[in-house]
Amino acid sequence: MSNQTKITLGVIIGNRDFFPDVLISEGRAQLLRVLDELGIGYVVLSEQDTPFGAVETWQHAKRCAELFRQHSDRIDGILVSLPNFGDEKGVAEAIKLSGLRVPILVQAFPDDLDKFNLERRRDAFCGKISVCNNLYQYDYPFSVTTLHTVYPDTDSFKADLRKFAGVCRVVKGMRNARLGAVGARPNAFNTTRYSEKLLQAFGISVQTLDLSEVFGWAARLADDDPRVRQKLEQIAAYVPVGGVPPEAVVKQAKLGIVLDDWMAENDITATAIQCWSSLQRNYGVNVCTLMSMMSEHLLPSACEVDITGTLSMYALQLASGQPSALVDWNNNYGDDPDRCVLFHCGNWAKSFFGDVKMANAEILATTLGTENTYGTVAGRTPAGPFSYARITTEDKTGRIRAYVGDGEFVDDPLDTFGSRAVVRVPNLQGLLRYICKNGFEHHAAMNASHSADVLYEAFTTYFGWDTYHHLG
């Protein structure tokens, strides 16, 4: 499943009037063609609003800012394009007057060696440095293209735009995230402690729900309630339930209705649920299948009330448009130092698997009973791209930290149960050493993509988080 939310950019075309006008007209047209090609929306001055639809003077900056304010509810980022040197103050003032605090990407056109005459000279190479200097002075965080100067219709710039779109999704989504903490943190898991106040400073709020309320609401639903029957159909359509006692599936259906209602009522973005042991002891099922269904439908759900774990899942989802999962860095893979086993009882979105079935949590069943642990989703992740991320809050220093990286899922043999995968990460031992020495949790979020670059840019440039990017 993939859901790449369409991004809309406010576009500023920079100009300096003693450079050739034709460069602005050509550059503007080329840039907008590329945005159309990539399906990226844009808000930009028309060629009737200002000369060539560009920004140079104070009056141009005011018109651009007014246009951006009119569309502020749908502008996710700002793209500054310099077909020539541009006017550094015009660009900076337009952004300031707009009132927008969104990601900014600065792109400049290159000069061609055979066109250094007065009719075609750009000097955008130099102008970009001046624009960036002004953005820095105005305290606006910004991103730059991989190449200092680049034509819009190149593969390099198109890759930059796709990455920037991901950054915009991450920044906007995280600043408005509403996370649901369902149940108390399991007493055995100090590793899932977190600071709501540090998260709130970045616009990330946490809503809480006690399991007693969940169990009470579920108990009031009759087995033949039409909504229960509908939820049973949804579960059966999502994962085969053969071999699972029907009463266990009914309990899951009721639980799913309660969670759906609470999430809709409170506009919950992602959840972290006390998956053991109160659910098994007091209600008699695992919640894994419901968590898997939520994650598959881009409402990430993590276990053990790991709020920063589900936030990590959400960040990867925003970057890639694909479901994420919460995993344990769980086992070595023989004596291969760059491979390991990722595992959880069974709450990964089913798009991580080839074949999938509902089962019981075999490890938990040893102490809680097989009859109380039905509801896991069991399967193996096939070979493909792999990204991982972990966000954590640190009360001692009052900061948020993270690590991100890319690797690959591999098809090496693995004979075990639950939700599982084998991954290869270059210099995995170095990553594990970093995780241990810096006090990170045993949980990480994973995604079937390569999204570490997007998260690193979003976390460091726009949130100011101390983020380690593992490059192997």
Number of strands: 18
Question: What is the class of the largest domain in the CATH system?
Answer: Alpha Beta
The number of distinct helices, counting runs of at least 4 residues, comes to 15
Low-confidence stretches: none
CATH topology of the largest domain: L-fucose Isomerase, Chain A, domain 2
Gyration radius, to the nearest Å? 25 Å
Work out the count of structural domains: 2
> What's the CATH architecture of the largest domain?
3-Layer(aba) Sandwich
Percent helix: 25-40%
The biggest beta sheet reads: 6 strands, antiparallel, barrel
Side-by-side strand order of the widest sheet:
10-11-16-15-14-17
Describe the global form: elongated
N-end to C-end Cα span: 29 Å
Under CATH, the homologous superfamily of the largest domain reads: L-fucose Isomerase, Chain A, domain 2
- Classify the beta-strand content into a percent band: 15-25%
pLDDT averaged over residues: 96
- Class inferred from helices and paired strands: alpha/beta
Topology (SSEs and partners):
Blueprint: E1 8-13, H1 21-37, E2 41-44, H2 58-70, E3 77-82, H3 88-98, E4 104-108, H4 124-137, E5 143-144, H5 155-175, E6 178-182, H6 196-200, E7 205-209, H7 211-219, H8 226-238, H9 246-266, E8 270-273, H10 278-282, H11 288-296, E9 301-303, H12 307-320, E10 324-333, E11 336-344, E12 357-360, H13 362-368, E13 374-380, E14 384-394, E15 399-410, E16 419-424, H14 428-437, E17 443-447, H15 452-462, E18 466-470
Parallel strand pairs: 1-2, 1-3, 3-4, 4-5, 6-7, 6-8, 8-9, 13-16, 15-18
Antiparallel strand pairs: 10-11, 10-17, 11-16, 12-13, 14-15, 14-17, 15-16
